[in-house]
Amino acid sequence: MSVTFGHRIICLVALVGAACLPASGCDFHVNSNADTDQADGVLTLREALAIANGDHFGGNHIGTCRTLAELNQMPGADYIFVPPPGCPSGAGYTILLPPDIGANCGAGIGDNITFDTNVGSISSTGGYDLGEHDTLDGMQPNGFAVAIVGPGAGSGSGIRFGVGDTTDKWNNFIRNLIITSFGTDGITAGGCQNASLTGLTLANNGRYGLFVDGNRCFTTNIGDVGAGQRNYIYGNVSDGIHIEGIANGDPTSQNNVIRNNWVGLDGVSPLDTTGNGGAGIAVLNSLGNTIGGGGTNQGNAIAKNAGYGLWISGPRSIGNNVLGNLIGSSPDLDLASFPNSRGVQIDGGASANAIGGSGTGEANAIGGNTNHGVFISDAGTNGNSVQYNIIGLNRARTATVANQQDGISISAGAQQTGVHDNVISGNYRWGIFQAGSTTTGTAINNNVIGLRGSANNANDNTIAANGLGGVWFTDSPGNTIGPGNRIDGNHGPGIEISDENADGNTIKGNVIGLDNAGAAAGNTGAGVYIHNGADNTLVGGATAADRNIVSASSGAGIQVSNATTDGTTIRFNFIGTDASGNVARGNSVEGIRIDQATNVAVRQNLVAANANDGIKLHNGASGGYVVLNQVGVANSGLAALPNGASGISLLSGATNNAIGDPITPLLFNIIAGNTGAGIFVADAGTSNNVIVGNIIGSAGFANNYGIYVTANAVGTQITNNAIAQNKLSGVAVIGAGTTGNPIRDNQISGNGGLGIDLGGDGVTANDSSDADGGPNHLQNFPVLYNVTFGASSVTFSATLTSTPSTSFELAFFRSDRCDASGHGEGQTQLGKVNVNSDSSGTATATGLTYPIPNSQTQPSILTATATSASGDTSEFSVCIGVSDQIFGDGFGP
User: Fold this and answer.
1) Distance CA 263, CA 307 (A)
2) Angle at the Cα of 419 (from 417 to 421), degrees rounded to 5?
3) I need a surface site. Which of 131, 236, 247, 638 has the fewest CB within 10 A?
4) Tens digits of per-residue pLDDT, 542-566?
5) Strands 196-198, 173-175: pairing kind
6) Of 626, 631, 464, 602, nearest in space to 528 by CA
7) Tens digits of per-residue pLDDT, 345-363?
8) Which of 217, 209, 280, 277 is nearest to 245 (CA)?
9) What tens digit of pLDDT does each residue of 95-123 get?
10) Mean per-residue pLDDT for 375-403?
11) Alpha carbon separation from 737 to 515, 623, 775, 779, 868 (Å, rounded)
12) CA end-to-end span of the chain, whole Å?
């Protein structure tokens, strides 16, 4: 044994009267695996630490008593000598441990404790205390670390420093030790600053592998990037690494660095390793810590822990950074799952923590955990961010390593969470799930949810679906999804917003259902699904930057459901196309489905190429406001992209909806090129809807019908629309109970069938007293007579035979041509008059004059309709041209 100071000193205490002390620290070379303190000629770890800490073990000496002459013959040995007692009387001197020698070795000087090859394993009877500025290095000359094996249950920690002290313990270095089987912690650090703990194995201890305790542990380095500096921390009863400050007061534990550790894995046989029984790493009321890093070997592997992989909790846990870690799988078996319970949990008021970073290598790979990948909860847990991570895939994004619940889950009052620039794919449930009426202010943007990677990744467009959908907010208000998310291929809705408190959410600037190449990668079900009382959701916005692309879904592109769901706005989106708006990427059902929901505004959208209706309002949907949409035509306006059924449908009790704006004529929809009707209205209970001011069909962009009203729909007001160039009738009203549908002030021309067809069977002849029933009660049309075309006007009279003692509106139109049936359409309305029938059912209007273009340069055809007080409009009358003017007797000139 030798106690070696920085330079040779010999003090004869008996002669000089005071101890001669060294000016620098001691080097201790432990050469025994005993756990004793006795004068036996060897140095144990317990004895070395006692000297370094200033303890003399009650006056026991170490080593053999020698004479001064004998000691002088020992080259390289520096000693402090004191006279007996301690050795036999006589000329001999003793090597004692006086109270001051240890104090001076450890008093801010820096003691070094190393081990000889033969130490191997120490069976400890209790823990060891480390002083300050000390180095404890367990690497033996044979290249193997010393193992310190505790006595098991009931014992304290293996190594302690700063525990119970009122002053900090600075600059301790502990490395290359195996510390196992202690009843409490492998290492407990109390007041500690600038400590370094590397190359350790902390395993199978009764509480934590490492406990950084109290309010004074700053800038501790736990693991490092150099060779042999990784710690292996596994099999401990509770957390692997536990850093805990205080919830109130100042200071608290902070600015520690945890990197290049394997927490839950032994580094030798990961399949056989028992993880820690609690969290892999717990950070409680501790701020500014860095867990991992972006450089080589800076990230930690945190796997197989029974609790959370990483747990950040408490109101003083502020500004921690979690970078470049592998959480839930083994780094040497990157495709395999080695689950923690949850990957990362942030709760208890922890705030402003960052999971992931934008630098090279700073993405965490969080996958394979038995619960959520990331879980954020509790009131006061605010302003945390989850960014640039890979959640549900392996680090290379070549295979799924699924978290067995949600990729990210946010709940119980957590607020202002930022989720951005992540790849969140392959998880069993939702990519992102959020719940709770006080969970608000979340911003989700620039994520890939359901595919493997970003645009520069070769596997980018490979689907790795989340099992229940992309994003779901339930009962959660005031959040924003977008811009910049790509939400594709999920086995459920791309985005779902639901339940009574989920009000005021915004969905903008996302691509939902297309991969980065613009190919179809649709979600199962709706692209966007809003239901069950979620009010005032905004899908899109006022500018092109707010536009969502919602395409290729197996359900509707956007679905808004339930009578309690009110005030949704769907604006400026492309629904059923690619990002250009010119290539079909249709949804498998409707583009937009409004089911029971109230006061839904649908405006300025491109809705095209969907397999069913472009826009459907049904099942009691009411208060809908549909304006400025382009339905069935490409964004360029140069090609049709037909919806597979109607452009817009009002069905199954839809009431009081407006297709177009009744007050502002310029807020029209363009509805053209659709396979079915431009607008289809049907079913009992479908009533009092307004179709006003729209362009329905045009040259080269024909719908099958312009407007088709059937199956007992009543009270549909068809007003001020341009209905032209459709394949069949401009307006068809079908079915005996389909009544009270006024068709007024429209421009109807160039359609392949009748301008207005009651019954769908061609011209319906007038009948005496108009007593027959049927669609619009088969209202009789007027008969025009005494028609005189002038250079710039036309003068005529009209008579109507219909229901006695009833008021009617007669409307008069000019057109460029007459139908093959001999009945006209109504290209331009000239005017209208109100008349009353007499007791016989006859009403007349005589001497009517209206201006028209010059009949020599623009031939004119005159027609008329009649609309009853109950809102039943007739078919168009027989058309009258310049060459076939007739008089009141029914004969021409």
Assistant:
1) 12
2) 155
3) 638
4) 999 999 999 999 999 999 999 999 9
5) parallel
6) 602
7) 999 999 999 999 998 899 9
8) 217
9) 333 333 333 443 445 778 889 888 999 99
10) 95
11) 48, 23, 6, 13, 16
12) 140
Helix (H, G, I), strand (E, B) or coil at 52: helix
DSSP-assigned beta bridge partners for residue 718: 691, 743
Segment holding 345, helix H or strand E: strand 344-347
Cis peptide before 22 (omega within 30 of 0): no
Token pair for 840: 């016989």
| Residue located via tokens 């629309």 | 721
Model pTM? 0.90
Q: How confident is the model at residue 769 (pLDDT cuts 50, 70, 90)?
A: confident
Neighbours of 744 (CB within 10 A): 18
Cβ atoms 610, 644 nearer than 8 A:
yes
Q: Are 821 and 754 in contact (CB under 8 A)?
A: yes
At residue 810, what are phi and psi to the nearest 5 degrees?
-105, 125
Q: What is the DSSP string of 284-322?
A: ES-BS-EEE-SSTTTSPEE-S-SS-SEEEESTT-BS-EE
Which residues sit opposite 531 in a β-bridge?
A: 498, 561
Distance CA 78, CA 694 (A): 103
Q: Which two tokens stand for residue 572?
A: 């400026």
Residue 513 CA to residue 296 CA, distance in Å, equals 36
For residues 395 and 82, give the distance between their C-alpha atoms in angstroms, rounded to a whole number: 64
% of the chain with per-residue pLDDT over 70: 85
882-890: long-range contacts (C-beta < 8 A, 24 or more apart)?
A: 882/789, 882/855, 885/787, 885/788, 885/789, 886/784, 886/785, 886/786, 886/787, 887/785, 887/786, 888/785, 888/786, 888/797, 889/785, 890/785
Strand pairing of 169-170 and 128-129? unpaired
What is the spatial distance between Cα 245 and Cα 314, in angstroms, rounded to a whole number?
9
Cβ 137 vs Cβ 144: under 8 Å: no
CA triple 195-199-202, angle to 5 deg: 90
Instruction: Look at residues 720, 739, 869 and name the one whose alpha carbon lies nearest to residue 809.
Output: 869
DSSP 704: S
Cα dihedral 155/161/162/164 (nearest 10): 20
Q: Checking phi first, is residue 889 left (phi over 0); if not, alpha (psi -120 to 50) or beta? A: alpha
> Using N-to-C axis directions, what is the helix angle for 99-106 and 45-53, rounded to 10°?
80
Name every residue whose Cβ is closer than 8 Å to that of residue 647 and which is 6 or more positions away in sequence: 607, 613, 614, 615, 631, 632, 671, 672, 674, 676, 677, 678, 679, 696, 703
CB 676 within 8 A of CB 705: yes
Q: Are 177 and 210 in contact (CB under 8 A)?
A: no
Tens of pLDDT, residue by residue over 460-473, are: 788 999 999 999 99
Tokens 């402090």 sit at which residue? 80
Read off the pLDDT of each residue in 274-283 and give the average, rounded to a whole number: 95
DSSP state of 184: S
What's the CA gap between 336 and 330, in Å, rounded?
A: 7
Closest to 671 in 3D by CA, of 644, 701, 650: 701
In whole angstroms, give the CA distance from residue 521 to residue 462: 9
What values do phi and psi take at 47, rounded to 5?
-70, -40
- Which token pair is 46? 């317990």
What is the number of helices (H) and of strands (E) in the chain?
4, 81
Distance CA(176)–CA(170), nearest Å, equals 19
State how far the alpha carbon of 303 is from the alpha carbons of 85, 234, 273, 298, in Å: 57, 9, 10, 16
Q: How far is CA 770 from the centre of its chain?
A: 63
Question: What confidence tier does 60 reach under pLDDT thresholds 50, 70, 90?
Answer: very low
Peptide bond into 251 cis (omega under 30): yes
Which residue type is seen at 287? L
- β-strands 793-801, 842-851 pairing: antiparallel
Q: Is the dihedral of CA 292, 294, 297, 301 positive or negative?
A: positive
Q: Based on the number of CB atoms within 10 Å of its own CB, is 139 exposed (0-12), middle (13-18) or buried (19 or more)? A: middle
- What would you report as the CA-atom Rg of the chain, rounded to the nearest whole angstrom? 43
